Amino acid sequence: MNTGAGVRVSLSGRTDLGQTRDHNEDTFLIADLTGEVSDLTTELRDHAVGPRGSLFLVADGMGGAAAGDLASSMAAGEILDYLKRVWGDDAEPTGPLLARRMREAVEHANTRLHEYATAHPEVRGMGTTATAAAVIGQDLYVAQIGDSRAYLIRSGTATQLTRDQSLTQRLVEAGELTEEEAEASERRNIILQALGPDASVRVDVSHQVLRRGDVLVLCSDGLSSTVKRQEIAEAVGSDTDVGLAARELIEVANERGGADNITVVVARFDGPGLAEPDITDPAGYAPYESAELAVVGSPQGQEDPEVLPEVPLAERKGLGPWPWYVLLVGMVVLGVILLL
Question: What contacts 200, CB < 8 A, 6 or more positions away?
Fold first, then answer.
């Protein structure tokens, strides 16, 4: 596998309070895993992707002021620290091994958050989404928990690379809602997994082969719930500076109410190490499975659950009492059984 030179990435990351929140529970992270440089420094804004790759992450915390802030920042820090320690020591960096380390890093972060919340009752129940993307050579791996999203813009078209771990996504998959209805639903923020609340999680890992000129956009639902997919594609057009694109996307979300914190990372890929876009190789959500990835269990050494938890996380961002959601999920499960 080619993990060498020839790929460059131009980056911008921004986070904003929005128009209605009194504190920001979102976090973003950008890091060069080869040089072990993190945060959005001048050095990172335009850099060559090294043999150990680059990392981008967006996390959306929940659980109230201190708890949400802590959960998202702690998750980002734990994921980066794990990759520096473990991936940084791997003798032969390859794409499949990076995918494995990404999954381990997210599981590790969940364990640390869960242990911390258990030991500190004042933040018990804290949690966070986490969508982390790592590029090595031409390969992009995305590890996801929750409903923060990753989009890939190629040849002017935006495609979602992730699948929301949410109640409305389950309803769409069960045929109970259309995608348009799900986007407009008042329950679109009810997620079925987050880092922290439970002792183990099932990490969704996906893979995409990058092409020259591809743009990756990671964002919290403060952006994706108000700015449509094709509007994101238009904002990050082929000649648009990534910093201007990130700023414009946040401004649009704020103009439309800014009902939540808004966070976005924009990464544009270029260089001779990437092939030109190919219509026979379209972008899209592609779950990644490999022999290397399959051997990785949960941090406690247990087998992964077969499905996501059926009881949604309660009280996400001020929504109503949880028993109502349990009833809804029960109806979904019953509908699926009847369909079978």
Answer: 107, 110, 298, 299, 300, 302, 304, 305
Distances in Å between the Cα of 309 and the Cα atoms of 41, 106, 181, 333 are 39, 17, 23, 12
- Domain spanning 8-339, CATH class: alpha beta
> Which pLDDT tens digit goes with each residue over 272-327?
999 999 877 789 999 998 655 654 443 333 333 333 343 445 445 433 333 334 44
Q: What is the pTM of this model?
A: 0.85
Residues ≥6 apart with Cβ < 8 Å to 127: 61, 62, 63, 71, 113, 194, 195, 196, 197, 313
Q: Which amino acid is at 109?
A: A
**Measuring CA to CA, how many Å separate 296 from each of 131, 224, 236, 301, 305?**
19, 31, 36, 8, 13
Q: How far apart are CA 208 and CA 191, in angstroms?
A: 24
**Residue boundaries of the structural domains of the chain:** 8-339
Q: In whole angstroms, what is the distance from residue 278 CA to residue 274 CA?
A: 11
